[in-house]
Design goal:
With 107 residues, this protein is of the alpha+beta class. It has two helices and five strands, in the order αββαβββ. The strands form two sheets. It has a three-stranded antiparallel β-sheet with strand order 1-2-3, with no helix packed on it.
Length: 107
Amino acid sequence: MRFTDSLLKITLAASASGVYADFFRNDFLPVGHVRTDPIITQDCLSDHVHTFYGPPLIYPKVTFDDLRESDPNLSSGNILENQSLYWHPSVYTVAADGTKSLQESGK
């Protein structure tokens, strides 16, 4: 049986049983926490901090070409061909005394 036939049968069986699974996974470590959001503005800082993953190019004017030309060995991901930059708003916890602590991934 070919791989695609097996994959199709597994997918159909999982769907029929109500089980859903991802077939794609990348593991990344954070490369930094910065007040920038390249989608919203390329000219100034963001109003909140973001956690970035991928190539260590975390500045507002980063371009597609910058990412494609970056050294894959410097990326925080486990797939050399994936030179994408991922980010999300950073997550903090607030202690009873009001102290805020950045929550790192995997902790």
